[in-house]
């Protein structure tokens, strides 16, 4: 595995600091025409979210053969611009990064992974990027308080026909299991959940759970090419 740093141009002259985690060997060597990249979106910028929080997952995915990319959204770290309260401007950052990845890293499929507040922001970008083939949410803040800021993002991901996986701890302080289930009842397309028993929102964000997130993401990727995956139940837990 190797790591490279690059700068990606977004809209209005904003530049984004990104890191590319390249595997020593790739899972897609036998089928380069379907090369997949995983773009990871960090937690809420306003509360200190940054790409460094995603490096453990990105490194783990790269070690397993998957090209992975993290980046600081506008106003974070070396990225220019100013963070927005609701994440509306950051949607354009995600689109810019995904387009850059496709143009410069020989990828024509992208899996979007969003953590915490990065999940609703990434969800709003899913159907705006043709190359995105699936979406993984790690701790989507669907709860009432978080919805004050992120309600505007809910509709986009719930109406997307693309495959979706929602991972959450059963003791998440922002979203209850019931709230998650109620929201996903109206979701279009293939929608699955994975509940981690007894784990809180910020515990799941921590490095202790990076390896488990890697396994869940890889399992989801493999299921995308499995025709029988469409017959899976909507909800499953562990």
TrEMBL record:
Classification via Gene3D superfamilies: alpha/beta hydrolase
The keyword Ribonucleoprotein is annotated on this UniProt entry: no
InterPro entries: AB_hydrolase_fold, KANL3/Tex30_Abhydrolase
Pfam hit, one: Abhydrolase_11
Organism of provenance: Actinidia rufa
Protein name: Alpha/beta-Hydrolases superfamily protein
UniProt keyword annotations, A-Z: Hydrolase
One annotated GO molecular function: hydrolase activity
Coiled-coil ranges (or none): none
UniProt domain KANL3/Tex30 alpha/beta hydrolase-like: residue ranges: 53-201
Origin: domain of life: Eukaryota
């Amino acid at each position: 595995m190797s790591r490279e740093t690059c700068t990606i141009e977004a809209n209005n002259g904003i530049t984004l600091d990104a890191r590319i985690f390249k595997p020593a060997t790739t899972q897609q060597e036998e089928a380069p025409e379907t090369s997949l990249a995983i773009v990871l979106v960090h937690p809420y910028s306003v509360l200190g979210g940054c790409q460094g929080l995603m490096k453990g997952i990105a490194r783990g995915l790269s070690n397993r053969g998957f090209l992975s990319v993290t980046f600081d959204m506008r106003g974070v770290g070396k990225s220019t611009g100013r963070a927005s309260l609701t994440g509306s401007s950051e949607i354009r950052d995600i689109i810019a990064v995904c387009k850059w990845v496709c143009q410069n890293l020989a990828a024509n499929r992208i899996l979007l992974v969003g953590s915490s507040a990065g999940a609703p922001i990434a969800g709003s970008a899913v159907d705006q990027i043709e190359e995105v083939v699936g979406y993984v949410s790690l701790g989507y803040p669907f709860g009432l308080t978080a919805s004050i800021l992120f309600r505007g993002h809910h509709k986009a991901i719930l109406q997307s026909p693309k495959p979706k996986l929602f991972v959450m701890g059963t003791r998440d302080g922002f979203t209850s299991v019931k709230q998650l289930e109620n929201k996903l009842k109206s979701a279009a397309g293939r929608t699955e959940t994975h509940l981690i028993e007894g784990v809180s929102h910020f515990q799941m964000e921590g490095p202790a759970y990076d390896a488990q997130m890697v396994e869940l993401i890889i399992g989801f990727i493999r299921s995308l090419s499995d025709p029988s995956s469409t017959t899976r139940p909507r909800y499953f837990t562990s």
